[in-house]
Amino acid sequence: MAIVGEKGAMRQWSRSQRQCGRRIALVPTMGFLHEGHLSLVSEAKQRAEKVVVSIYVNPGQFAPGEDLDVYPRDFDGDVEKLKPLGVDIIFNPRDLYVRDSPEKNGAGHETWIRVENLEKPLCGGSRPLFFRGVATVVSKLLNIVEPDVVVFGKKDYQQWRVLSRMVRDLDFGVEVVGCKLVREADGLAMSSRNVRLTATERKNALAIFHSLKRAEELVRSGETDSSVLIEQAVSAISHAGGRVDYASIVDQETLQSVDKVASPSVFAIAAWFGSVRLLDNVELPNS
């Protein structure tokens, strides 16, 4: 396993592999890896001869006042976790933006990608700059690494949909794979930010998972009214001390809100516990 920090060296390696007919998979991450990330690597290994894992805390997706400075980092620990998995390259770029520093937050970089409709609901309501930063940095990674397949997790469901549409609309010619959300033993969705929760917040945050499972059970028993499902979730999370950013039931493809669960839908929740914003979702069964 090699660690590459320069764009030119990364391109050169990828092109040499492609010239030899080897298929390349990319797993983009921001580091502080957990079992959810490692499951993406395992999926990538099934789909390509060579696997690249990028580790880059992208300043372009953080607005002023968000948690860029305190986002957890442990590069040495990430390297140790990836060593036994057969990863070929860790791409840890230092120069993705024209002026890449946490203070300037990508300032000087003038070209941004917007996925107009899919980025507006859910997280787009409270983080209007987030998806332009995500789409732009992933497009840069795809241009540099030139993979045949890119693997994302569905914990960030909207992000997976936004990036899938970007790849399709801009003809990147890359296969996009979405992998199921991975949970802790007690049900909490795995996230690099979980480490910032206090013990009490960590326990209380399980209300998100339990409310989603309850919604799933209600749908299976015949409840299709989105407002009923959402109300029980918001009540449970608020009672546990959480502050709900959004709780929405949306069409799986368009991410537009639905009044009734009558077609493939996803129940997506973002909620704050303390200073940590957590995401979770469940794909609801058809009525």
Automatic annotation (TrEMBL):
It is an enzyme of class 6 (ligase). Belongs to the pantothenate synthetase family. It catalyses: (R)-pantoate + beta-alanine + ATP = (R)-pantothenate + AMP + diphosphate + H(+). Keywords: ATP-binding, Ligase, Nucleotide-binding, Pantothenate biosynthesis. Pathway: Cofactor biosynthesis; (R)-pantothenate biosynthesis; (R)-pantothenate from (R)-pantoate and beta-alanine: step 1/1. It comes from Selaginella moellendorffii. GO terms for biological process: pantothenate biosynthetic process. GO terms for cellular component: cytosol. This is Pantoate--beta-alanine ligase. Its EC number is 6.3.2.1. SUPFAM superfamilies: Nucleotidylyl transferase (SSF52374). GO terms for molecular function: ATP binding; pantoate-beta-alanine ligase activity. It comes from the Eukaryota. The keyword ATP-binding applies.
